[in-house]
Design brief:
alpha/beta, 8-stranded parallel β-sheet, 6-stranded parallel β-sheet, 16 strands, 48% helix, globular
């Protein structure tokens, strides 16, 4: 059975709110384009995602890495090779049933098949292989791929990426990497999270926990990342110390600081997809004061975007915190770790405002922030100029997905 059912993998409601933003943007935009579609999320954190699921048309199906890699992939292979078992497999496996009944699998992994991330290659493959075996088209939503110099990654990419129906690249650098690999199933797009819309309830919901009068001053948002912390500390740096020093220097300039984690898993101190423990450590070392606001809780992707949009300047290390600040036209300084940051900023002619973690030191961060502060009007003008086109490129993938679903209905 096929119809207006869509299965999604690589995103989530809990944890990384960039993943939530992509998932919720897909639900929002495809509801507008299709007749009462049903969604299934193959979830890495099924209990946490189910607890936060407010969508009656979204089903959460467990797909933790081992379950996905072993169980679901084995059942999908059996589905392909043993046709007489297909009815049984559909009845006994929610994941196989969802894939078999779906018109498309949306892969929303933010960065896949990339040199330097070979430890994730098996997951990248396991995410799309069940759909390929069940003969469900794979649509890779806007993401970063490449480079492909590593022989293992190059082999995996050449083997599996051509099998996707469509790969949406979310920037020039990714698109050039993919073209260099010889891929022809490409569409130049923009991150799906640029399509996320606020519903108007965010101010009231956030205001129940946060004093919104804080934003009456000149506010600088700071979004740290445990991924950056590990990279900086691995080369002998002191990430927490540098962020603390920066925040205090900003406060000394008479500005207010919003310290906000964009990836939070409530109820655990594990740091995978969880910046809250890091932010608590940073906050504990900061001087108390009315000019400091720390969001010490998990918010929704829309609530985070609303708060980020209230800032006058923003310093981001989480990719989708950057996307939210750009989507809200907030001048942004980015400390990143791959080409995925720079290629998005290029769409706004603002790539100069990104630098790598290897350049992070107190002097460089202070200098770049001072430049951004001095040129904020110029940066804001570029955001306002280019944002409509970036949103159009983001929404393009919703049109393509809807066309694919309708053609298979």
């Amino acid at each position: 059975m096929t119809g207006q059912r869509i299965t999604i993998i690589g995103s989530a409601l809990s944890g990384n709110k960039g993943a939530s933003a992509m998932l919720e943007a897909a639900i929002q935009t495809l509801r507008e384009r299709l007749d009462s579609p049903r969604f299934t999320l193959l979830s890495m954190y099924p209990a946490e995602d189910a607890a936060q699921n407010i969508y009656p048309d979204l089903e959460i199906v467990a797909a933790a890495p081992r379950q996905l890699g072993v169980t679901i992939n084995s059942l999908a292979l059996a589905y392909r090779l043993l046709p007489f078992l297909r009815r049984t497999l559909r009845s006994r496996s929610a994941a196989i049933r969802a894939l078999a009944e779906s018109s498309v699998l949306l892969d929303q992994g933010g960065i896949t098949f990339t040199d330097g991330r070979e430890k994730f290659l098996l997951y990248n493959i396991a995410s799309i292989l069940p759909a390929l075996n069940v003969k469900t088209p794979v649509f890779k939503c806007a993401q970063a791929v490449g480079p492909f110099r590593n022989p293992v990654n190059r082999w995996a990419s050449r083997t599996f990426l051509p099998k996707a129906r469509t790969i949406v690249t979310r920037g020039r650098i990714t698109h050039e990497y993919a073209q260099g690999l010889g891929l022809t199933n490409l569409v130049a797009g923009a991150d799906y999270a640029f399509s996320l819309e606020l519903d108007g309830t965010e101010a009231a919901d956030v205001g129940a926990h946060v004093n919104l009068a804080f934003f009456d001053g000149d506010v600088v948002g700071v979004c740290p990342s445990v991924v950056l912390q590990k990279k900086v500390d691995a080369r002998g740096g002191d990430y927490i110390g540098q962020i603390v020093s920066f925040v205090e220097s900003v406060r000394a300039q008479g500005k207010r600081v919003l310290l906000i984690p964009h990836s939070v898993r409530t109820g655990t101190e594990k740091t995978h997809n969880n910046d809250l423990p890091l932010c608590r450590d940073i906050h504990a070392r900061l001087r108390p004061g009315d000019d400091l606001l720390f969001v010490d809780r998990e918010l929704t992707s829309q609530q985070l975007r609303y708060l980020i949009g209230r800032c006058d300047l923003f310093v981001a290390s989480r990719f989708h915190a950057m996307v939210s600040s750009l989507a809200m036209a907030v001048p942004t300084l980015v400390i990143g770790w791959s080409h995925k940051y720079r290629e998005v900023l290029e769409m706004f002619e603002l790539e100069e405002w990104a630098f790598g973690h290897d350049q992070l030191n107190p002097e460089h961060l202070a200098d770049r922030f001072a430049d951004l502060s001095a040129r904020r009007a110029e940066v804001k003008a570029k955001l306002d100029e280019h944002l409509p086109e970036v949103k159009r490129r983001s929404l393009l993938q919703a049109d393509l997905i809807a066309d694919l679903v309708r053609s298979g209905s």
